[in-house]
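Support reply, case 0932

Customer input (verbatim):
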Amino acid sequence: MKQFDESLNWFKGNMHTHTTLSDGVHTPDEVIEIYRAKGYDFLALTDHRRLSMPETVRGMLMTGGVEFDYMLDNECIHIVGVGLRSAPELDPPMIGQSAQQAIDAINAHGGFAILAHPSWSMNTLAVTLPLSGLGAMEIFNSTSDAPWNPARGDASQFVDLTYTRGKYTPLVASDDSHSYTGEHTRSFTWVNAKELTLDSILDAMRAGRMFASQGPRFTQIEYADGVLRVDCEPVERAIVYSNLPWAAHRVFTGGLTHFEYTPARGERYLRVRLDDADGNMAWSQPVVIG
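Our regenerated output:
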């Protein structure tokens, strides 16, 4: 099975962004121009508890969005919603509500719910595994990384712990831009869709036709006849992750554009990370094999 439809188009977007409407330093118009100038195709303004609506601005699709946040005893949960066509009844979200209610409301209003920065939030599986209806989770969040925060931007371990327990939530990468001092336009998601419309982008995301990136690009991922085959633009290294703590021959190096991996006995899922020469990464969706 192939992850991508080669007859469709690729669109680049960021689904977690803040403006002066909450705790960002730039106005919505300024933020839109920052991302438009960097070649983004779509963008979600996801201010805290402040919904933005879908529209097209200067040729860039604005998917609409909002971020809800909930404090627990030893962790917090942030839920980003994109693609909403009306406001969820979650005002104020900090009082008498829950992350699950936010997810349910986002989905009920036609949106796509994302678990934001789980490593930064100190999320535990006891809290997150019971959540239902998530469309994706952030495997990388730029603002959660150093120097803006104590280097908890990469949620790879959280992802593998989640997948090892059989919950294969798709992955995105986002900036979560606030200060616009280098965290912006760093991490993004490529979506394999028919056209640049809200419906087409959401349909592709729900189908898992997307990958998270900071630069490297997958061109195709296929699992057939017991072999994982990966095509990509040239990278320095590729790593295959799974539920097993150890398995041989899962690291590939040296100007890669294609590699193949035969799963070891006991591997139930595979996911791939690409690394380029500058240290930028890309992350695939999981391939469930058993």
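We compared this against your earlier run and they match. Two observations from our side: Residues 28-37 form the longest helix (10 residues). The chain is about 15% helix and 35% strand. Please reopen the case if you see a mismatch on your end.
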